[in-house]
């Protein structure tokens, strides 16, 4: 079975299930019983179900600005464009107006993805035909060139949040196919795969504790504890996960790397990644503690195939820092047991 960064496809499915509760819907239940040879098949299957679900619910619309030359004045007349384009010769004027349209970025991304997948020979012929057959539903949507930059401009709100899962999976699959087609070095491919998995890992860890435990679960930004209120240019401290219960707070930072520990030279002693320790230590020290509150930090790495894996407990200047790794290759029951045990390590101690 092909693995994504050494993680079995079945566990990628479970991670998606937690990170996006959409997979609990009846339309997706058949996926849980199927076997997939590679991650591309899983993503393609999800999209083959998710995109029709969006279509049946009606494609989202929003007001977009339209600029055109017309012999009917509507919206605002653009005098400069009218003169520049010499529109008056044809008894027309340039106008700018808002139109309630399906031609929005989210629909453009899905259409571009459908075009790309319908032509990709890395997808089965059956899937290519299915994706091609969905394109007529997007005739009112402009064609755009598919690129990773498109996702950078995506914003969600209450009206379009139903798109998030499908649009994210569009990106996961596009990145996977792009990576396979690329002639980049194996090292660069591993870095890109690591970045893609990191986002899913963070979402999964947060959703797991939200669903499976009674902790107060959040992921707030931590404010810098400055002496004079001057915070200009200070970096944002965005937590991945904060667990709270009974005056105890555990700040968790989820990490995905090809190597979880640093070795300066072959055969050298493995050390913790200093930047990660500095980060979690800074989070702890800037957390605004309440009276009698105990605050600790945890670095939760996704376990790699390397011999040396972090499994340490430190007490530094009165602060407890737990550094552990989670084996994502084991059965999911083991993943669940390990995650609960890692949290209990802090919350159950007397």
From TrEMBL:
<keyword id="KW-0255">Endonuclease</keyword>
<protein>
    <submittedName>
        <fullName>Restriction endonuclease</fullName>
    </submittedName>
</protein>
<keyword id="KW-0540">Nuclease</keyword>
<keyword id="KW-0378">Hydrolase</keyword>
